Every structure is written in C-alpha cells, then in structure tokens.
Amino acid sequence: MVQDLLKAGAAPNVTDLAGNSALAWAAFNGNHVIIEDLLNTGARINITNNHGNTPLVLASKMKHLDIVKLLLERGAAVTQQDNLGKNCNTVGNLLARASRQLIAHVWTRCCQLRV
C-alpha cells in the first residue's frame, strides 16, 4: 500500500502533528520494506520529529537492530542530537546489551565522522 501511494505521488516527508514522518513510524515499528521504499523515493533519512528524534534513534529505542543497521548503511547521522542532547553515544549505549557487533559498527561510524 505504501509503495502504491508513493508511486501515485505521495510526499514521503509529510509529518503528523507530533512531527513523525512515515520513515519515523516505519523505523519505530521495524518495517524494513517500507523504510527501503521511503528512502528510495526521497524520504529524508535524518528527519526529526518534535522531540528531535531521528528514525535512527527511534529504531534503536525499540531495539530494531536490523533497522538500525539499515539506516546506518544508508547514511543516517550518528552525531545528530535530539532535544535532550542525545546522539550516537546514547544510541550506542542503548544497543550495547543487544549486540556487540552492531555496537562496534555504530562506534566505528561515529569515530570515522570525527576524523
């Protein structure tokens, strides 16, 4: 259905009253297919909601590790801060219990951006 709407010209970056885009909701719910469709049609990967949360932060809060990896591979910013000042360090800490391999990927990406 989402793919049909996008093909019909639906704007991928429209937000609800809380500032959540379709990409934010897809990341929050862990929907890999919808995320790919949205990104392939121009959705902004680092779009923020009213709290400053990006799709990357939302996916990490919900422990959707496959979505976190996908967003990082597609260029999600790990240094962008939300309204509380949380960034890749917070994302990394949230993931630390779940996956050492993924946390290494997050830290490596964060450090590469600082060089």
The residue fraction in helices comes out at 40-55%
CATH class: Mainly Alpha
Radius of gyration: 14 Å
User: What is the first-to-last residue Cα distance?
Assistant: 42 Å
**Hey, roughly how much beta strand do the residues contain?**
under 5%
Number of strands: 0
> What's the architecture in CATH terms?
Alpha Horseshoe
Number of helices: 7
Label the overall shape: globular
Major β-sheet annotation: none
CATH topology: Serine Threonine Protein Phosphatase 5, Tetratricopeptide repeat
Number of domains: 1
- So, the CATH homologous superfamily? Ankyrin repeat-containing domain
What is the element string, with H for helices and E for strands?
Answer: HHHHHHH
Sequence stretches where pLDDT stays below 50 over 5 or more residues: none
Protein structure class: mainly alpha
Mean pLDDT: 82
Descriptive notes:
By secondary structure, this protein is an all-alpha fold. The protein has a single domain, classed as Ankyrin repeat-containing domain (Serine Threonine Protein Phosphatase 5, Tetratricopeptide repeat). Helices cover 55% and strands 0% of the residues. It contains 7 helices and no strands. Helix 2 runs parallel beside helix 4, helix 4 runs antiparallel to helix 5 and helix 6 runs antiparallel to helix 7. The radius of gyration is 14 Å and the shape is globular. The termini are far apart. One of its GO terms (molecular function) is ubiquitin-protein transferase activity. Pfam families: Ank_2. InterPro entries: Ankyrin_rpt (IPR002110), Ankyrin_rpt-contain_sf (IPR036770). One of its GO terms (cellular component) is BRCA1-BARD1 complex. This is Ankyrin repeat domain-containing protein 27.
